[in-house]
Design brief:
233 residues, mainly alpha, two-stranded parallel sheet, 8 helices
């Protein structure tokens, strides 16, 4: 009985990175901005440093949401840290590609585990802020995780890593989150059908429903595609 031993270097050579699909509204401008930043990033700054920056910024954004329970001006810190999260989370991969220092398996795994833990901390901070009910924050986190799982499974099975759905991608979501956070400083409530709701309860419910809808559509489409490609004769 023979046993095949898979050595790490061989596994790396056989790994095929998934094609990135990014068709969001801001994608063309964002690509040019990131390329400009990558060319001007000091050599001592590595993609790992930027990943760490993005993760730390998301943690601080969550902590700032929690602090806003006692001082609403902590919401301004949230805006700053969300912008810093965009810089670190978006520029790390661009910088690695620009410097031709790609580590596709490491980068994919670390980047998305960082996103997952960051999302947990961010929604926990939201739940503690008093600007959204914890049930809505939990629904947003659950919907994000479901959409993430669908995306990662599609990347594994179809070699297609979808970064956007329609005109919306991570940057558009950050822009909406920043706009909503600024609105909280002025008016944290919304009126619908004659009733008053927390603004982020309405926005969070819409976001959760939207992410679950995108996950469901993606799951149906990818299931049909895989069935067609691997249909038994």
């Amino acid at each position: 009985m023979s046993t095949t031993i898979e050595f790490p270097d061989r596994a790396a050579r056989e790994f095929r990175d998934a094609a990135r699909v990014q068709q969001a509204l801001t994608a063309p401008i964002e690509r040019r901005a990131l390329a400009w930043l990558a060319r001007r990033t000091p050599e001592p700054v590595s993609p790992d440093h930027l990943t760490a920056l993005g993760f730390a910024a998301q943690l601080f954004a969550g902590a700032s949401y929690a602090a806003a329970r006692w001082n609403k001006y902590a919401l301004l810190l949230v805006v700053f840290f969300i912008a810093a999260n965009w810089l670190g989370d978006s520029l790390d991969g661009t910088l690695a590609r620009y410097r031709r220092r790609l580590r596709p398996r490491y980068g994919f795994y670390v980047d998305h585990m960082v996103d997952t833990f960051g999302a947990v901390f961010l929604t926990a901070g939201l739940a503690a802020s008093g600007y959204v009910h914890w049930q809505i924050a939990a629904a947003m986190l659950a919907a994000f995780l479901v959409l993430s799982i669908e995306t990662y499974l599609a990347a594994y099975t179809l070699h297609e890593f979808r970064l956007s759905y329609g005109l919306f991608g991570p940057t558009e979501l950050r822009i909406l989150l920043i706009a909503g956070t600024i609105a909280l400083l002025v008016h944290p409530f919304a009126r619908l059908f004659g009733h008053r709701f927390l603004l982020f309860d309405v926005g969070g419910a819409c976001a959760a429903a939207g992410m679950l809808g995108m996950a469901a559509v993606g799951a149906i489409r990818h299931t049909m595609q895989l069935y067609s490609e691997e249909r038994r004769s």
